[in-house]
Amino acid sequence: MAPAATTPSDVGDFWEPQAYSTSAPFVATSSPTLVQLLQAHGSERILDVGCGDGEFTANFIDSAGFVLGIDASAKMIKAAKSRFGSEKAEFRVVDCRYLDKEPPIVDGSWDKVITNSALHWILRDEETRMPTFKAIHAALKQNGRFYFEFGGHGHVSEAFTALLSMLVQHGYSMEEAKAINRWFFPSKEWTQHMLEKAGFAVEMIEVEYRPTKLTDVDEGGLAGWIQLLGAPMINAIPAAQRSQAVKQVCEILDPVVTKPEDGSKWLGYVRLRGVARKS
Ligand SMILES: C[S@@+](CC[C@H](N)C(=O)[O-])C[C@H]1O[C@@H](n2cnc3c(N)ncnc32)[C@H](O)[C@@H]1O
What we know:
Layout lengths: L16 H7 L2 H4 L2 H7 L6 E5 L16 E6 L2 H11 L4 E5 L16 E7 L2 H4 L3 H14 E12 L5 H13 L4 H7 L7 H10 L2 E14 L7 H9 L1 H4 L7 H16 L8 E13 L1
Parallel strand pairs: 1-2, 1-4, 2-3, 4-5
Antiparallel strand pairs: 5-7, 6-7
Helix pairs in contact: 1-10, 7-12, 10-12
This protein binds S-adenosylmethionine (SAM).
């Protein structure tokens, strides 16, 4: 019998800006290719979908005309506003699964839309996938471009496996465990197909296997990463059992992710990256 769970459709705001900068500071800085592709300049209006704490957005605020960062987490948006908010950079709470319900944003006025490391959360629910792609398309000016990078098929598969297995050990069936999961890591082919169906011409799409070194600071490291990014699965078990569950997941992962020569820990990040033009 499965213990009471958070529902898959509403896991609450588990994002913590402090924990994010301790356990995953590399997310905002590990996408130089995407920032180079964007080439923000002049008076361009740029929409950043799933902007988080604004650390990634800050890569192009100075070179763009105006930037709007949107994210479902009120805590991340509060952090982004306080650190990077200005006349040139606004941040707003928006659940991008329902971006099509935001006419003031989806108004065909954006030169560019960018998203880094957020689509694999936003696209989790099947019924809102195409509406999200279509809303991004509608938000852009004609010939405007969508620049994206997110977790592709096989992303952090060792951590994903250990978290699913933890849920099964706590009494969930595999079907229930899969439903609790909030990640969606599609293939290049699927992504290209969906973008074309939404009206984009895909100009570039690629997959990069990019092992990523975890931090080694207190509160960060493997346990910090599992606790924050695995929160929807960890929070599905009773509160009293969570710290022990994180410990067990880390024990299973440790021999897989640790480099024997120096003890550093790495997760298998798979980046799916591309550029699509509104045609
Ligand atoms: C790994 S963080 C990436 C943040 C930022 N783009 C960066 O590069 O640092 C993922 C972000 O996706 C956001 N997110 C997840 N689901 C979302 C949704 N349905 N709508 C909008 N943002 C969402 C989270 O709140 C979180 O801030």
